[in-house]
Amino acid sequence: MERDYYRPQTREDVTPEILEAAEDIEQGWYQDVRIDWEDFWDRLDGSILDDGRVLDLGSDLDSVPLRTIKAHIRKLRASASG
After folding, report:
1. Distance CA 1, CA 53 (A)
2. I want to staple 8 with a disulfide (CB 3.0 to 4.6 A). Which of 13, 57, 64, 76 is the partner?
3. Residues 24, 48: contact at Cβ < 8 Å?
């Protein structure tokens, strides 16, 4: 069976579902510790989305989607600590 992939390219392509998955990773693996973004990315990449597609984040650790996800997680951390 061939899988259908979702490859976000822009800030707008980073859906609330992807941000929620990122939050789950942050809470499960990195709560109260510094985030290793390469490991974080590897954990998020390949997630199965609600519609059955596989999240394909590529390998660029400076991509727009990763920067969008980082900003979201940093904002959550800042609001939780202050």
Report:
1. 12
2. 13
3. no
Can you give the pTM of this predicted structure? Answer: 0.91
Q: How many distinct structural domains can be found in the chain?
A: 1
Q: How far apart are CA 81 and CA 6, in angstroms?
A: 33
8 vs 81: CA distance, rounded Å: 30
Alpha carbon distance 48, 39 (integer Å): 18
Give the range of the structural domain holding residue 55, as residue numbers without chain letter. 5-81
Q: At what angle do helices 64-81 and 16-29 cross, to 10 degrees?
A: 60
What tens digit of pLDDT does each residue of 2-13 get? 889 999 999 999
